Amino acid sequence: MEYFNSDYFTYSENELLCEQVPLTKLAKEFGTPLFVYSKNFFVDRYNELSEAFKEINHKIFYASKANFNINVIKIFNDLGGGVDVNSAGELFRALKAGVDPQNILLTGVGKTDDEIRLGLEKNVHLIKAESEEEVLAIDKIAGEMGKIASVAIRINPDVDPKTHPYISTGLAENKFGIDSKLAYDLIIRSSKLENIELTGIDMHIGSQITTIEPFVEATIRMVELYKKIQAAGISLKHFDIGGGIGVLYKDEAPFTPKELADKLIPIFMQIDAEIIFEPGRFLTANGGVLLTEVLFTKKNSHGKNFTVVDAAMTELLRPSIYKAYHHIQPVLKKDRNDVIMDVVGPVCESGDYLAKNRTISKVSRKDILAVMSAGAYAMVMSSNYNGRRRPPEILVDKNKYYLIRSRETFEHLLYDEEIIDLAE
Ligand SMILES: Cc1ncc(COP(=O)(O)O)c(C=O)c1O
Question: Which of 236, 238, 242, 320 has its CA 20 to 30 A from that of 410?
Fold first, then answer.
């Protein structure tokens, strides 16, 4: 079998470590399933991206939807980044992490009036509007509150990001943003509203994008629009290119931030704007693993091997909903033959699997497996389905480790739920 190694998850004497901490130790101490994150992966990726674009005026707003543990948010905030939030709940988390509201962008294709009101009340840096009705709603609510709302218009540039259809967001057929052909007129109309200050334009064309071309194509279109808006006398401050930078899960060959910068900086140079980035996956995905214990192995009469583990779609939904690939490898390397197996969870769904037809060295009961690339879109998509309790999260910093969220208790499953008296 192949092993997924990085500077942050490496084998030493046949044992997988996160930075300098052995993963068997963490599995023993905290139980499984268990998320383990490398702090220095997060820090290095942030610095790598920021360094690549240092020539231009830019700011990174971490897309907290990727991993919203407040300690993870705080790491990026401490590095000087802002935070992109997609709901009132994520806004609440960012504020709890100590993020200054002026470093928060409020995103979301369907914000409620209460969410808009909350964003204005907290004084977030800006609210992104994704439809004319939303622009009008923001204007009305801001007026009622006696405020001027800073608003950026999210535009759908109609570019194919060549990624999984469920995480493609910048095609005309996708629900996100405002149609690029309608955007200019809408911006002109919006600029006349009393309670809104239009501060910029925004795009986010998709996630897990592994080629530079879609970014270049979309950025060229958006920069043209930016110039046209400025020429109409509306002065904008920023251009937000969104997130979407792809990462290595299996055999992709994603571009580096430096390669992206080499292509985009000359285009950005055509306008005098702060460039905003909203990466999530790039900053976190390969900084995390999900540890899981082998419960049972079995083989059916057709020769198919199943490895039943204690993690499931409730901890890592991506394989079930996107058929996403996550590399799986034993935490302790043993000299065993390879076996082709399905790695499946305990949830009552045939769609509950972590890997299908995967070649992994033979496993047995109680072995600990590491499901790689689980730092993004993993814990945040977890659920209590089948009465499962969400797992703990550990943050590793060199040879130290910290419990940053503990395993849910059975009481969590009943949060505020009580038997009521239905008797007449
Ligand atoms: C508006 C917006 N910004 C940023 C992101 C982060 O994307 P990624 O994790 O691919 O960088 C997303 C993800 O869906 C998004 O919808």
Answer: 320
